């Protein structure tokens, strides 16, 4: 189950001078293509879902496919929310399975960016999830939303980057030095000297959201100065588009399944090319050896109840499901009743946490404290509670 801590993954890349691709996926063809590339090249990889794409697919439907692909992979994988709009988006992404989140407040004032990012960091760190901050300007990640973003904005400064990291506590920082322009056909002009200064001041993994053309040497120069997470979508989409158009030209009467038949292979070829250029190929074994596995926790409670009718117990459990499932880091809350009427423990709760860190933040959360003190503890009898780390074979 090589779903690993994203912070460990990127810290390894930073320490060893290579970059991990954070490939934005919009369908299972993208997921399968990227994962096939990672398996062939034995490279660590980040599967990323961008909030700016949510009008084109259902986040809650695609995430289980991503998580299944990661857990069945032989290479290390992290799952990331890209361009999250706010705290609520980050909470939802963690609940659905992301173990890394980016908060995108780049179009806000510096002060508002600090406030919004710090709130996400406090929540996510309590769930064991690292956060990517965004300073300067990172445009939208999709061809279809280029019109929403201006072509130029101020570059990230060393002073702002240092102050931002110190005051927010982000784990990684997306910086703007010229690789993020909205022009897709011209070669980027990178401010490497600026990047060098930021890297020397921060000494932490940096991220780059590339929407313009970069050659192999430019990528290597970025990586040499701290860029170890490269967000990548546009070229994958172009490869998919080209495969569909080529198929349509060669077989004008082809149906949908025939038209998309080559999409996965085209995406996979471009992703693998990147993994090799960025130095991630062949790193899977050493990354797995040093990264913590990302392990969910099952919090189980079995108990009896005194002083309540069956109808009142049902109402209490429904309220508990609604209240507890909204706590950050809680992925699901399931309640049950013993099948044998005379069972010693007639009721159970199964609460799935995103990570072990949630155990403490959950029990300290004011909504949990209020519900248990007001509704649960006064009526619970012979309660047994235990946490299990869930590992699949």
TrEMBL record:
Pfam family of the protein (one): F_bP_aldolase
Transmembrane annotation, as ranges: none
GO function term, MF aspect, one: tagatose-bisphosphate aldolase activity
Protein name, entry field: Fructose-bisphosphate aldolase
Domain (Stress-response A/B barrel) ranges: 297-388
Origin organism lineage: Bacteria, Pseudomonadati, Pseudomonadota, Acidithiobacillia, Acidithiobacillales
GO cellular component terms listed in the entry, alphabetical order: cytosol
InterPro entries in UniProt: Aldolase_TIM, Class_II_FBP_aldolase, Dabb, Dimeric_a/b-barrel, FBA_II
GO biological process: carbohydrate metabolic process
